[in-house]
Design a protein that fits this description.
about 160 residues, GNAT family N-acetyltransferase, alpha+beta, about 30% helix, single chain, transferase, five-stranded mixed β-sheet, 4 helices, Aminopeptidase
């Protein structure tokens, strides 16, 4: 297995992998935005320009077996701590094709993304794990964090 940086001319592959992740969660086709692929492509391109985004491919027997992307985390609140003390990186879209799973590819891609985030000065890496991904990320050293969520769903009456 070889891990290499994805080139901009390969962005469509990354788009496909990202959509396959959402498919694997059971997302019905009608839930996707009509411009989903264009939105992902724009996110990737803007991320390269503004958030130091990097994407990686795992190559096995000459085939792209999986991918992962990472970038500087876009904070939802004003950052007041100096970046050398607190600079978050975010890993997203860790994907391995079905035929290549259970071979350590997700682990290798995640480690490559962590190395990239370290190289750009990040002090912490953040990832949101699926149930299947959680053991992989724990093997890298990720720990559960204290994020809390509240589902905001309208009641049955429809107000």
């Amino acid at each position: 297995m070889d891990i290499r940086m994805a080139r901009p001319d390969e962005d469509e592959i990354l788009v496909g992998h990202y959509l396959k992740i959402w498919d694997s969660y059971g997302t019905p086709p009608e839930h996707y935005r009509p411009d989903a692929a264009a939105r992902i492509l724009s996110f990737i391109r803007n991320g390269r320009e503004e958030r130091r985004l990097a994407s990686f491919f795992a190559i096995v027997d000459g085939e792209i077996a999986g991918s992962a992307s990472c970038q500087l985390h876009q904070s939802p609140f004003p950052e007041v701590i100096q970046p050398e003390q607190r600079l978050l990186g975010y890993i997203w879209s860790v994907y391995v094709m079905d035929a290549f799973r259970r071979r350590g590819i997700a682990l290798a891609l995640t480690n490559k993304a962590v190395d990239h985030l370290k190289s750009i000065g990040c002090t912490t890496a953040v990832i949101h794990a699926s149930d299947a991904g959680e053991p992989v990320y724990q093997a890298v050293g990720f720990e559960l964090a204290k994020e809390m969520r509240l589902k905001l769903v309208a009641d049955q009456e429809g107000f």
